[in-house]
Design a protein that fits this description.
Elements lengths: L3 H6 L8 H7 L7 E13 L6 H4 L13 E14 L5 E11 L2 E12 L4 E6 L5 E9 L5 E10 L3 E3 L3 E9 L4 E10 L3 E16 L13
Antiparallel strand pairs: 1-2, 1-11, 2-3, 3-4, 4-5, 5-6, 6-7, 7-8, 7-9, 9-10, 10-11
Length: about 210
């Protein structure tokens, strides 16, 4: 079985740095998970007066209004088979601010018709983004949103999302940069930082519904 990133990248998957191949090559048949711990050097975006409105999406773990520097961060990736029988991968992100713990969660799968990865956002998956995937000449992973949909059907003029991740040999960790930009208000959310990861064995009863923890 190939992972969703292997399906999306095809032969380019082997151009990824070996550590990225390990991280993005996990499948539901392996019974393993990725655990990441690190620190976001900066989290910024959205004008100050609009940030409180972002917390409307905080309960769904899709967006949040807090901003800061040197924010502790954790990541959990579970590969699992979703309700439609598709290979899927969860992203369970936690940001530890002084007065709140915020989530930014997603469940991804490979869409054969789109020939791209679909990123279902939040616990509800109300919003989803079709993401094109590529490999940089340095062996990093690059993702760009192609379109955003509501309930996996209605396309909307939503924010544009980009993600870049590469392996830092000196730090022996992953450097991550995520940027979400809206055409009207500019940067909605940007965060970047260093994440140390390990691959751990799991059993099937450790995987929550859709791979998303509450």
């Amino acid at each position: 079985m190939k992972s969703i990133f292997h399906l999306a990248l095809e032969e380019k998957f082997h151009q990824l740095h070996p550590e990225l191949q390990k991280k993005f090559g996990i499948t539901s048949q392996q019974n393993i998970m990725v655990l990441g711990q690190g620190r976001m050097t900066e989290i910024r975006g959205t004008p100050l007066m609009l940030r409180p409105f972002l917390n409307i999406g905080a309960k769904d773990h899709v967006i949040f209004g807090e901003r800061g520097k040197e924010v502790p961060f954790t990541l959990e990736n579970y590969a699992y088979e979703d309700d439609h029988g598709r290979e899927a991968l969860s992203y369970i992100r936690r940001f530890f601010f002084p007065y709140a713990i915020r989530g930014f969660d997603a469940a991804m799968y490979y869409d054969e018709q789109e020939q791209a990865i679909v990123d279902c956002l939040g616990k509800s998956s109300l919003l989803s983004t079709v993401m094109d995937v590529d490999v940089t000449k340095e062996g990093g992973l690059l993702m760009h949103s192609r379109k955003t949909k509501i309930l996996d059907s209605l396309s909307i003029n939503g924010p544009q999302t980009s993600l870049y991740e590469h392996y830092d040999e000196k730090e022996q960790a992953f450097r991550v940069h995520v940027h979400v930009e809206h055409p009207m208000i500019g940067t909605v959310l940007m965060y970047e930082g260093l994440v140390h990861t390990e691959i751990l064995p799991i059993t099937s009863n450790h995987i929550p519904d859709r791979g998303i923890l509450t």
